[in-house]
Amino acid sequence: MTARRLLTRGNIGLALLVVVLLAMPNLASAFFVNFVLTQTMMLGVAAATIVFLARYGGMVSLAQFLLVGVAGFMFGNAAVEGGARGLNLGMNPWLAVVFAIVITTAVAFVLGALASRTTGLYFLMLTLVYAVIGFFVFAQIVELSGPGGITSIQRPDLMGPPVRLYYAGLVLSVLVYLGFKALGRATFGLTLQGVRDDPIRMASLGYNVPMHRTLAFTLAGFVAGLSGVLHVWWNGQIDPASIAIGPSLILLIMAVIGGISYFEGAWLGAFVYVLAFTYLRDLPLIDQIGITEARFNTVIGAVVLLIMVLSPEGLAGIAARVWRRVNKPASAAPTAPAGGPSSAA
Amino acid sequence: MTATLQRASAGPTTRRRRAELRRLPAWAVAAAAVAAAVWVAFLADGTPAGAAVTDPGNFVVTLLDAVTFAGLLFVAASGFTLIFGLMRTVNMAHGSLFLLAAYVAIRVQEAMVGRSRNIDASDVGLLDWVVPMLVGATVAAVLGLVIQQVFLQWNEGQELRQALITLAITVVLADQMLREFGGLAGRMVWPGAVTHFFTIMGERYALTRVFMLGVAVLVGVLLWLWLNKTSLGMVIRAGVDDRQMVRGLGINIKRVFAVTFFVGSFLAGLGGVLGASFAGVAPGTDGDWLLNALVVVIIGGLGSIKGAVAGSLLYGTVVAFAPAYLPSQYSFYAIIVTFALLAMVLAVRPYGLFGRPA
Potential cystine with A66: which of A134, A264, B18, B206 (Cβ 3.0-4.6 Å)? Predict the structure, then answer.
């Protein structure tokens, strides 16, 4: 009973949020929609893959932004014709999307298979190494990109107006959010959580533990690839510096700010980060204490440090805790008797 | 009866087949290593260095490059692995400490020589190099100790939280170092006494690289003596094996943790000063050396000094040999070889050559 009521309340909230977001282009300035919100959607999807791997698989990955970049580079290589660098395959843009996603998923499968026998900190370090090696691969292999990257990448005509990119990001975000949530209750998601909690027991029950981890990483890579295609459409160019160690860390930082075990946290963290990145330097007093654009990383680092010291659950975790505390006195009396039997049954 | 016999005979064969399958990666790795050795020795004609049998000079130079770079790798990675081995803390700030020590040492050297630009090696005495090195490494060690005392002491065992905390510290430190030391590359100057070339197999080779290897070997020997011949070192080694037992024996493990973090950060600082003398430092060097330390310990196994030696040698070999012995038009692909090394080691031993599951 309570579970069902909470669920509908959450669903109503989500539906309301989506309606507001759909109306956003009419409510807010074009800059806010096309810059802040579009970026939030794209980065939120990428951060959600980190949350997916961390929450269901117990694997904290630093390689997700690399996969975002792989999709971007592959789209650029496939779609651009007669550019200065890259393969210049000159494909149809939609075929190029398929090409980019297939390659990204394949790369994710190989990287995931290689990392599938490691967990925890080893996984974190190994994916960090992936991220850096990926940067060097694109920076050094001139056939694919070279240090200058691929420029003047056109998005398909259908996506011409920037606001359509925003809607695409919104649709993708909703699909990814609902999909990851649903996957947590599906067989694969449940098995994955079993693998996270006790790999030895799952292996003894006959489940292929490395294969489950590999497939989870592959799925996360597929979703990150979708986000990467949007990202390269939005940006119009991509270079190796944009997938270096810094951006990879920032994506993890977004997930951490939002709360690494909450899917909502991925978009919340991305929103807070983009908001801070865009508007922090405009605050009147910030200049006085020396926090300008150049010192922005100090602020972000200090915020993450504070969050990790106070609550490793991030903003979503803090919100959930406050929510529970506020609701407890009011709802404890009526729901407790109703909740007891229904949960027992 | 026949069924039992059949099952009995089927058991060993499947088991043998499984064992063969499990050994498959090991055989593949061995084959790859042999193929690489044959390539370097006889076949590598169209490469920058040329096959080893026809051009032994280049081979020796590349080998020296590999071993000397491995020395630097060892100094940089040993502190990382020491800290992890005892405390299970992945110190993502290791690269920052490396860079900070380098910057501080460069400043001190400039002050000692009395010039901030165009320092000539002949103006630099041995002391003008050793004192900045010790000052820089000590600054890194003190900062590491502060980080450990403030941020890592009270959440022991929460490995991921600690890793993320040190990650956040890295972001702050990198930004603050950019503010303090600027964006330009800096360089330590080797002491004039070792800035010479010597000739080996008809090739000139820089003595400074051999000097760097000497410092690294000295550090390694001192570390070995400290860990194996002193009572504190024995406590640390016992702690690596079984922390709870050490605690149960009434040893003040908090003090041991603090000392280990101090020494580990000091080693990061030493690596930073060597690196600054060897190739210079700039913003971003911290990330590069965090990566180098990670690759070494992932190959060698986290928490093992022996593993750090093995990992440094393997990684140093690949870094030196790949650009020299890949065909000229493929030199850009050297980074792929590093990845292949990592992949091969992990396929055979997921926790590194000398590592154990945590």
Answer: A134
